[in-house]
Amino acid sequence: MANKQNMTHEQQQYQQLQQKHEKKRPVLKNCIKAFFIGGLICTVGQAISYFYIYFFNFTEQSVGNPTVATMVFLSMLLTGFGVYDRLGQFAGAGSAVPVTGFGNAVISAAIEHRTEGFVLGVGGNMFKLAGSVLLFGVFAAFVVALIKTLLVIWGVL
Amino acid sequence: MLKGQQSWVFANRPMIVSTGVTGGPFEANGNLANDFDLLYEDLWLEQDSYEKAQRVLLEDAIDITLKKANMQKEQIDFLFTGDLINQITPSSFAARTAQIPYFGLFGACSTSMEGLALASFVVNYHGAKNVLTGASSHNAATEKQFRYPTEYGGQKPPTAQWTVTGAGVALVRENQAGQRLPVITSATIGKVVDMGLTDPFNMGGAMAPAAADTIKAHFRDLALDPSYYDLIVTGDLGRVGHDTASELLKKSGITMQHGQFQDCGLLIYKDDQPVQAGASGAGCSATVLYGHLLNQMKQGHYKRILLVATGALLSPLSFQQKESIPCIAHAVAIEMND
Amino acid sequence: MNWIRFIIALIILAGLTSCTDKQQAKDSRLALMKTTDPKPIVTDGKAGSDQAEKIKHKVSSFPEIYDVAVVKGKKGTLVAYKVKHLQRFNMKKIEQKMTKKLEDEFPKENFTVSSDYKIFLEVVRLNEKMHSGSISDRQADKRFNEIVEMTEDMK
Question: A6-59, pLDDT tens digit by residue?
């Protein structure tokens, strides 16, 4: 049905009419907001990684891990206190693309299904949004690594 | 009595004796807070799950309705309710508590008027003396069914709608002359209309043709024109759907005066509440009609209203499988008995 | 939304004040934000500061780089530098180029080259400790070896 060709004339006509009344997403405004909030989140992340460089034995290379863990922890707190979804409504991609968005996806699903218990609820549903990020992320990394390995073997790189 | 193709006229004019309307914290900050009988400060309602909270909303609405009418549960013949949760458990569980013979209904957000039409039909033909009907929805429980987790920070588009936390219940009884109460005079049962829309974040746009179809059928079957009603109110079309329905009706020659065509989803919240296009949910039309609109009628602001509750009959599965969204609308006409 | 904005503003403010606090504090505090240009240090006790100075001069001549710290220890020489922000994409290339050039110029030295901020910071800290005299040459050399080890961990 979703296919445009399969639609009857009446349906197409209605959709045209409906589109007139449909409010469009304010794309430019959303982009600007996403830019600034996303930038703000990354600034916080940068500050945290400097913190780890200054006070702990992390180099620029290895500081990524504790920084990501801290950012996910912060987004967990914000999600739990019900702030992150409002931030998400305001900032859109700005709060979804940084790793905090991933944390939010995991934690929100975990909170949502807490009432069904720890095993079937939290455990089973925790990755219902983030699972596909993990799966396709790992798969994409595998493909890229495979290509690079082949290129190195063939002497291109 | 059947009139036209899909309408009932209730010659015995069953009346709405009393109503009970409950709501959550978000509704307490809304436009119609004064029309709720009971407002909870906490979304959990002191329960350990949102589904239980929704059941409590409905149970409390039933209790309030009975208390106002000075009736006991044993005196009620049937209960017609429904909601949007899997297998309508909040309604069924509330019916378990109430111990009233029960019909579980599913008409998505049109359940409130489906229930009222059926209850009126049963009472009109002496199938029962007292019937309770209502609908409920809970923001967190319903969004859990249909959308991302509540706390997920995804951005909702401006066409999205906010599910009402609330339950509205009405007690329908055989007409007893001399009582100044709202009566149900007719109802039009809608057909399922599908215009091929697939965006679950634009329910209003999907439901608008169903509402327009039912309104047209109502005027055709009963040979009336819009000026007969003081107010024609759609259930939960929101801004997008309401404007669209308005234009659809105008195109088919049904013109309404300014302010005569309203929408429950636009009435219930204030403009500054973050609800995007408006409210939705089974509880939306139920709380607004049984609370605000009937109060207004009793105060004499309106004499005759037509309430057209719209429902999107999709499931989370069906839209993931790329099916379009079929929609339905049921209309019920309510008049003040003089 | 208002209080969220308030909290965000508060966090930024707190961040700013903690940075401007104790302005004339040691260089190492701000080593990651401004050019510190530390003097080359020599931890192997022998007079080799001329050599270190030369190395520093050589490295500084790279246009992509804006801050250089050199430590000459017993086992080798550590060169830490900061890459100009827009050149950071070419960091690997710069490192290769620099290693090659240094090894050509000073074939006797054993170089460790790093653009990591952490390494730079540690070198500045070591520099300060040596200048204030709170650390003996032996301790300094030990610390130098630790820093070199740290760079090896990254590879």
Answer: 788 888 999 988 888 888 888 999 999 999 999 999 999 999 999 999 888 888
Q: A48 with A68, same domain?
A: yes
Structurally, chain C folds into a number of domains equal to 1
Which of A15, A21, A111 comes nearest B243 by C-beta? A21
CB pair distance less than 8 Å for C11 and A44: yes
Tell me: do A91 and A151 sit in the same domain.
Answer: no
Query: What residue in A sits closest to B203 (Cα-Cα)?
Result: A22
Q: Is C117 on the interface with A (CB under 8 A)?
A: yes
User: Domain residues for A46?
Assistant: 26-126
Closest CA to C101 of C65, C60, C70, C58: C58
Please give the Cα distance from B233 to B297 (Å, whole number). 13
Chain A CB contacts of C150 below 8 Å? 57, 59
- Is C23 among the domain residues? no
Burial of residue A46, with CB atoms counted within 10 A of its CB: 0-12 exposed, 13-18 middle, 19 or more buried: exposed
Number of H helices, E strands in chain C: 5, 4
A85 and A34 in a common domain: yes
Q: Which domain holds residue C125?
A: 29-153
d(CA B132, CA C62): 85
ipTM of the complex: 0.84
Contact with chain A for residue C10, Cβ under 8 A: no
For residue A83, give the chain B residue with the closest CA.
B151
Facing residue for A53 by CB, picked from C1, C4, C117: C117
pLDDT in tens, B84-143: 999 999 999 999 999 999 999 999 999 999 999 999 999 999 999 999 999 999 999 998
- The reported pTM is 0.85
Question: How confident is residue C21, by pLDDT bands cut at 50, 70 and 90?
Answer: very low
Q: Give φ, ψ of A141 to 5 degrees.
A: -60, -40
- Rounded to a whole number of angstroms, the distance from the CA of C151 to the nearest CA of chain A is 8
